[in-house]
């Protein structure tokens, strides 16, 4: 790989693929962020169901985490993408038209990443809650705090403090899982890399560029996660 040719290839000149790759990286971040937000919602509900131990909600949460963590990520993506396409195709005649309908790749990716990260977040948030000193919760209850205020001021911040490292790992996994969404035709980073590789017949150059972009995304994410961890642990460090 010639260094000058590589820079020109991934640059922003007339023959460069820089804008295309950056556009793919932007889609990667967008779908990973959307999926992670959905996963946090699902994880919060799942963790609450397990902690509260209310049947049948706890059984549903157990089944959800067991099934999702037992299936390959790519299989989940296929099920959501092709399953969604089948449902839309089945519904289309009800609207007065026929033909196959593709499920939107971005929506399929968001749901897939959300379902996968949600199962992982359920266990991370449950573990974070169990790590909270129950004496602090009892003290807040003794002071007359209402349940909503107690959750907002005591339970949620302390749970997040213990769960942040695990949630950070889930975010990094979501970034990497987004590369599997190229099978749905979504124009994320890996898909654009495959297109560029096939068009120029320079696969090593493009996959090396993609690796650098993924590394940059993960590095920035890691620094941000570490900053959040320091922020939520500052009082602990001060007391220590």
The CATH class label is Mainly Alpha
Measure the end-to-end span. 52 Å
Taken in chain order, the helices and strands follow as HHHHHHHHHH
Task: Indicate the low-confidence ranges by residue numbers.
Answer: none
Work out the radius of gyration: 22 Å
Note the main sheet: none
CATH architecture: Orthogonal Bundle
Percentage of β-strand residues: under 5%
Distinctive features:
AA_ABC_transptr_permease_3TM, MetI-like_sf, 10 helices, transmembrane, ABC transporter permease, ABC_transp_permease_HisMQ, mainly alpha, 240 residues, MetI-like fold
Could you please describe the fold and organization of this structure?
This protein has ten helices and no strands. It is mainly alpha-helical and 240 residues long. The protein has one domain (23-233): Orthogonal Bundle (MetI-like fold), CATH 1.10.3720. Helix 2 crosses helix 5 (105-131), helix 2 packs across helix 7 and helix 4 (73-91) packs across helix 5. The protein is flat and about 70 Å long. The protein starts with a helix and ends with a helix. The model has no long low-confidence stretch (mean pLDDT 87). This is ABC transporter permease.
């Amino acid at each position: 790989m010639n260094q000058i040719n590589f820079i020109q290839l991934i640059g922003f000149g007339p023959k460069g693929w820089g804008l295309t790759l950056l556009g793919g990286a932007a889609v990667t971040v967008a779908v990973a962020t959307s999926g992670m937000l959905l996963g946090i919602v699902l994880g919060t509900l799942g963790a609450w169901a397990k902690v509260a131990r209310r049947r049948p909600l706890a059984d549903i949460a157990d089944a959800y985490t067991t099934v999702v963590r037992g299936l390959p990520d790519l299989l989940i993506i296929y099920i959501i993408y092709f399953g969604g396409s089948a449902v839309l195709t089945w519904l289309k005649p009800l609207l007065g038209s026929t033909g196959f309908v593709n499920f939107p790749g971005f929506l399929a990716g968001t749901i897939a990443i959300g379902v996968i990260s949600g199962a992982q977040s359920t266990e991370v948030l449950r573990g974070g809650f169990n790590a909270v000193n129950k004496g602090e919760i009892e003290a807040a209850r003794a002071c007359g705090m209402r349940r909503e205020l107690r959750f907002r001021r005591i339970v949620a911040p302390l749970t997040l403090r213990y769960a942040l490292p695990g949630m950070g790992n889930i975010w990094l996994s979501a970034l990497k899982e987004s590369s599997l969404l190229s099978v749905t035709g979504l124009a994320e980073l890996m898909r654009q890399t495959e297109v560029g590789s096939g068009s120029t017949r320079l696969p090593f150059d493009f996959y090396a560029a993609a690796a650098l972009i993924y590394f940059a995304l993960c590095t920035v994410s890691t620094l941000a996660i570490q900053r959040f961890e320091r922020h939520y642990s500052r009082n602990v460090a001060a007391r220590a």
